[in-house]
Predict the structure.
Amino acid sequence: MTGEQSVAAQIKNVSMSISTISNLDPNTGLTVNTPILIGGEKLIESPDLYNYIEQGFGQLNIADLFLGKEFVLRTAAYLAEPIRKIDYLVPNLYLFKTNHNDTYQLGLLITPYSDINVTEYLSEGELITRFYTGTFRRTLKQMELEKITDSRRRRECTDMAKILLSLLHYRIFDLRKLRGGTEKVKKLAYLSAVMIITANIKQEGRLCIGECGTLYRSDETQTDTCPKCGGPLVDAPPTLDIKKIRFAFSPKLKALTTHVTPLDYFSFFIYSEIPLAVKLAIHRINSKIFSSVLYIPSRVIFEISKTDDLIDVYTLWTKEGEEVTLVSAIADSRLENLGLPSQMSERVFIRDVNEGLEKKLLFEEIFSKSILKDWILTESFPLKYLDEKPEYQTWEGLENEFG
Amino acid sequence: MSSDEYFFMAKKIAEELKSNIATIENQIDRYIRVYPKIKFDAQKFANRLAIPKESALVMASMYHFLTINEFLPDTYSLDDFILDVKCLFDSLFGSTTGLLAPEDYKKILLSFVRIHISFISVSYTLLKRYIDEKGKDLDDSIVKAVLIREIILDGFKASFESLKKLGYTKKNPDIRFLAALLKYTLIEAILGIKSRMESKRARSKEDTKDWLTILGDDVEIKVDLISEPIHKIYEKNVEEYPLSCCGSLFFDILYFQVLTPLYSSMYSVSEDLIEKRREEINTLTIIGDALKAQENAYTEFSADGSVMKLNLEAIIGSALHVTRKLPQRQKNEIERIVDVMLRQKMVNQFGNLYIKDKEAMLKLILDDIFQIILNEPLLALSIVDQSKINELLLNPAEYMKKNKGKIKLLFEKKFKSAVGSNISYFTIANAVSKLVETSVIFLKTYQKPF
């Protein structure tokens, strides 16, 4: 009877909201994870795997995803590029990471919708973390006053997490919210550089989606069972193998030599990738789908930890056979007084690139006709030069090489 | 007036008067001239709250403003209002209430009244939205969460901020007081709807000539709610809820202290409207499906009841004779077909998907289901007495022919009991799928392999 189901209902059936909330248990002082899964009845490969999938998300080290770096990936949209035909509504991935006091949360949305508003999604995620913390505080106080037991306290917190995530899921799929619309801007950012990346799609190797999560090369094992832990071995998810890169940047960047180097900007692209541990947990949901889809970060927003600056990376791409060409525009809120184009102009530029790519124009031509025509456009060079050659490590150096 | 209009009007009145509050300041002198009692009441304020007379006059005027404009019922005593104001100050300043200038007291009271009125508006909007969401047969926790997120939260947050901005102390306002104020206005709104629905029921009893309606439901709607003054609700909140601040607690306190205790009363007073809304949604769904059927040539959904019955028989036949099992998917399909069949029959017979007499609704489908049992005697496995099962299995068709009358009576009795006292499309469809499921289970249990 699938002909009868509306498209919205079909999409809802293969969509899923996931959240892992991590905070300290007041009694033991140890980190406790609360994984919550909503929906996904027709997405999960088999209902028997449900506990196993939940376990995967419960085992993630969430706080780790936040600490240790100068910046944190706050929200991202990963759009799907299937590498083979699958008989399915192909899902995209959306992610947020939020924290409030000592509570950390990783949120994921798996859905065929491609127009989820990521800033709104992040904002709702922030509310969830805040409200969860409220329930946590209240139940903790009630436990201290001996009005409720510890197990009741934990149950109430878990129930509240479920309610809050179910609410978000309902608002997206039944009330049609968080889709399209204007993006909220926390701080103004300025278009500072564009990267054009050439990469090959790589799919090789086998992945253990059991206990150990080991990635094996294709030649290392032929079986369907993991030699280490006995878990199931499936095809590893496809990845991008980056070959070459070229930059377009404003001459005004030449004055900058720290924190905003070509390698720094390229690093943002690398850090956009879904963390491996999270990827493995997602893979357990349906290994058939997730081994057939390449996820490309189409929009990623980073927050600089100490200030409230942000880096906003917007990526378009085209695919020809095994080769993918990505165009990433980077807006940086730290570069306030350099007279760089605003994010409004970024939209215009992206539109120009889109048209140009469709018409299969050369980048030189696309740039020369766009608002960035006075920017410096380098040639393509191997990725390793960014690391190995000093002249490729500053904007001035790049200008000298290619200007 | 329809319920929509009622909600809209209540909300509009609240909003209009809210914008008039600024003028109350100018009207205080006029109030005192027109209502000399205010001077007398002001003395009570001055004594109880230890504040200067000028400030007390403002407070007494506020009380009359609220009762005259029916934001508070006329049964709301001055003494209760004085205690409310005391709690307001406690929640703003804690136990130390330093002496403020009359101007400051006025600002605080005005803020309080503004918030009160905006909460009245929120309460009515909330009840209307509640009916919409509940009509969709959602989990109650989601309904409550949606109401908080979409109707209450912004206004609650804004009210908190406006109290905080009064800034006379560094202390954050006690959110339990705000929650008490909202709970009060919501209770009043629920009781308001209750009396309205009761009048409606009484009127339809009077107007109708249909004796079923006259002898039918009671006019009175029973709710476990009484109207309590704000300060009493605040005291309870302080007793039950251990924290007073701040933003991270909004959802929690609104969910557990405001909505959950009132939730069943909200249902009781809105039941009639919810059922109507449910039917509206289902009708739209059926119309939508029917339109899709016209577009899609491949569909098995048919407006012809006999085709649907064939589909039902096919599923049952397959479960009993071929697979010997009934997976969830098939169960859902049975329920779906029964649901649609019944709706069509209802429309054909009564011209309506919703009738008061639920027994008649049940009777409509009984004959059809029994006809299916006649055609598929193994279904009787879940109906006949256990001692007769072997006899039935030996020769189902023969047994059926011989005991048709008895089985029909037994079936009707069992089916009605399975549906229960709450007769609805859902419970009837469920009873049918359960009937099939039980028969399949008994078949597997009792039939000896050849």
